[in-house]
DNA sequence: AATGAATGAGCCTTCATTCAT
DNA sequence: CATGAATGAAGGCTCATTCAT
């Protein structure tokens, strides 16, 4: 993980480094992302970078961790509400994720790409864990007594897969339907403003409905 | 696309070249895949390769085309059967795809990876079309009169997404559930034999059920 | 020089080969010109080419020879006319050369480029001879009794240089003044029609005047 | 242009790099010159070179700039002298140029070659400007009131061409007449000492005379 | 005789990382 | 401690030429 020298940087500088790195990895993927490019863009000394992170992979691991924390779902609070409906939890979760990704295209794009880089041997270990843990968390929620009885399918694992992947493809779907150019948004680093909550909710309503009652 | 000189090779040599390339791209992705590595493994001269394909991207395009043809679904015949149920079509399709991928881990792994490389600017043009066309085909089937009335959701586009992505994640799910190491299978190039049709059908039954009636 | 097999080709095929080669060398110069490109453009078999010419340099030598013959000046007839003025000979020569180059941009461009490739070690031997011989011929004309007395400068060698190079730079001058894009003309292989004889003569008049009486 | 890292090198190292590069480009021309060769000869690491110059073309541009500055004519001072004769200016200029080229065969050879590489599409942009600007400067001098009246030809553009190209061919002429092997001199990197100022002046006298009163 | 497959050295360039200062 | 110079393997690709068929 990141070295102490990185933690000692001013929050502003840290954020600059993180954002620039997010953008590079989001745009090019792990292998093609260029440390040299990041370093040049930051006006950093080559050596300095290696005093913050011990390797490219180390930086990548840090970014995954950092991005995950930022997009941490607020599921916990939700789940604990008495009498809450399972599908309401999912709806909220979908909405939060999509909202976050549209408002933070760089981080959203980064995490999206990370999820699709599980096959890359080089970083499979970093992502495999994340992927597995997300599935497992979803699964454990499903297995809560109060939710379990709301579901028809008893195999919680496959249901978790379905829920998790639907959340993943919602990102694709929105991009496809509204012809959003994520690459461009990442480059410009600007939030995708042109999608109202109403529209967002309509998309999510349909997907929740599919989840609930099938297509 | 491939040059004439490639077509003139013996079928055995062609297949060697194709398989070695599939494996390299499946294992490392487009950018990181190394032509030099492929060429070395094939015992080719550097220059010889470029008499078969005019560039790395050209080879990649050929492989996508070739793999797609090999895994071509037999949907057409199915659809035309009188009185056929929509979900039966999907089930058959899921089964064929999974079966194919398990028996041809190299090609399956290649195509899986291709689908997730849409973000790669370099090859987005090759893949974007494929991705879009698969969605569109799925959508057009859904819109057939005889199937439309079997569905609750009227937005055929989002349904197509759901169906398509479920088929995609089934691959992930099987790997996850049965702890299949695709990387290893690709390297060894051997079919994944240890999954019986019975097991396969069980997985697919559940997923079709989710599709039909929700989770 | 060219091999016998080349001579046995039909005149049309020979001409095709020559013209395609002229264009390639004119456009890119000796080193950068690509035999592969020429061969591809001609739809030739690689091996066939080497049955016509034994090497790239051999082809180049043949082209120089061929182009030189085509642009052979008609000086001889002119010189023998009784009472002819030296400057009239030069004027005619300049006019013929420029006219030829404007009407045959490919060959003109080729020869122009050849003249400037004397420094290239690889082909210096081919061009050095040509260059020297042109100077020597010019010099020998100057030394004819009937012309010698018309000149102020007794060093015929330096005068020959001056005359020869002026003829060379006239090509540059016309291109510069009339913004002629030789590259484009070579690619299109079309005569440069937009320069009338009147204009041509005006340019040549001035240059002859400079030669005769100084600037 | 050159990167900062190059400027930080010791003057000696910089000069080594420059001279080695001059020689390579002078000997082989832009396309055929090999960066690998230069780098090997300098005992550099491949990557180190690219910390000095961002590309082959960048190095070439730098060399052109550097060589031009070294051979900068002292015309300005000369022109401002009251009562100076135009032909005296030219004579001085010719002398300086030739002297410089004979004493610095590598740079002279480099610049000579550069001037003849205008046709090379790859670097035409670098050279076209230089070529045009030299002509234009010459032309503007000619158009100075105090010089204009000394000339017979009113078309200053064509006169500028004549003057500029005569200066160019003087280099050729000297090589031709004294059988100087520039290639060999460049390889050996040694000044061409065997031409006395007396001889040089004789050549220039004749050429100035031709310019003044014709041949 | 004619073909076109094969060759492999060589090209320019980029990369993550190290380490002396 | 911070710097930035140095590294050299590896990348994709082109080339003129050879030679078995």
Tag the structure with descriptive keywords:
homotetramer, 215 residues, mainly alpha, Arc Repressor Mutant, subunit A, Tetracycline Repressor, domain 2, 2 domains, 13 helices, 0% strand, DNA-binding
Can you describe what's shown?
- 4 copies of one chain form a homotetramer.
- With 215 residues, chain A is an all-alpha fold.
- Chain A folds into 2 domains: 4-63, Homeodomain-like (Arc Repressor Mutant, subunit A), CATH 1.10.10; 66-213, Tetracycline Repressor, domain 2 (Orthogonal Bundle).
- Chain A is built from 13 helices and no strands.
- The longest helix of chain A is centred in the N-terminal third of the chain and has 22 residues, at 11-32.
- Chains in contact: A-B, C-D.
- The interface between C and D is large, with 45 and 45 residues.
- Chain B binds a DNA duplex (21 and 21 nucleotides) through helix 4.
Briefly characterize the structure.
With 215 residues, chain A is mainly α. Chain A contains 13 helices and no strands.
Question: How many distinct helices of chain A?
Answer: 13
Q: Hey, which two chains have the biggest interface?
A: C-D, 45 and 45 residues
Please give the number of β-strands of chain A.
Answer: 0
Helix content of chain A: over 70%
Oligomer: homotetramer
Spans where pLDDT lies below 50 across 5 or more residues of chain A: none
How far is the first residue's CA from the last residue's CA of chain A? 44 Å
What is the CATH fold-level name of the largest domain in chain A?
A: Tetracycline Repressor, domain 2
Q: In this structure, how is the largest beta sheet of chain A organized?
A: none
**Count of distinct structural domains of chain A:** 2
Indicate the CATH class of the largest domain in chain A: Mainly Alpha
- CATH architecture annotation name of the largest domain in chain A: Orthogonal Bundle
Radius of gyration of chain A: 19 Å
Mean pLDDT of chain A: 87
Shape of chain A: globular
Pattern of helices and strands of chain A = HHHHHHHHHHHHH
- Global structural class of chain A: mainly alpha
């Amino acid at each position: 993980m990141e070295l102490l020298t990185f933690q000692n940087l001013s929050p502003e500088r840290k954020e600059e480094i993180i954002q620039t790195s997010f953008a590079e990895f989001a745009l090019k993927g792990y292998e093609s992302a260029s440390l040299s490019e990041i370093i040049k863009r930051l006006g950093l000394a080559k050596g300095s970078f290696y005093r913050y992170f011990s390797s490219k992979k180390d930086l990548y691991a840090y970014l995954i961790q950092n991005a995950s924390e930022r997009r941490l779902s607020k599921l916990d609070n939700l789940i604990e509400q008495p009498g809450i409906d399972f599908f309401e939890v999912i709806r909220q979760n979908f909405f939060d994720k999509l909202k976050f990704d549209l408002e933070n295209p760089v981080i959203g794009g980064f995490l999206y790409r990370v999820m699709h880089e599980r096959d890359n041997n080089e970083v499979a270990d970093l992502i495999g864990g994340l992927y597995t843990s997300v599935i497992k968390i979803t699964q454990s929620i499903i297995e809560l007594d109060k939710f379990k009885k709301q579901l028809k399918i008893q195999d919680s694992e496959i249901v978790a897969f379905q829920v998790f992947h639907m959340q993943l493809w919602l990102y694709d779907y929105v991009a496809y339907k509204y012809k959003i150019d994520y690459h461009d948004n990442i480059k410009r680093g600007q939030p995708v403003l042109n999608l109202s909550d109403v529209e967002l909710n309509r998309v999510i309503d349909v997907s929740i409905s599919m989840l609930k009652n099938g297509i």
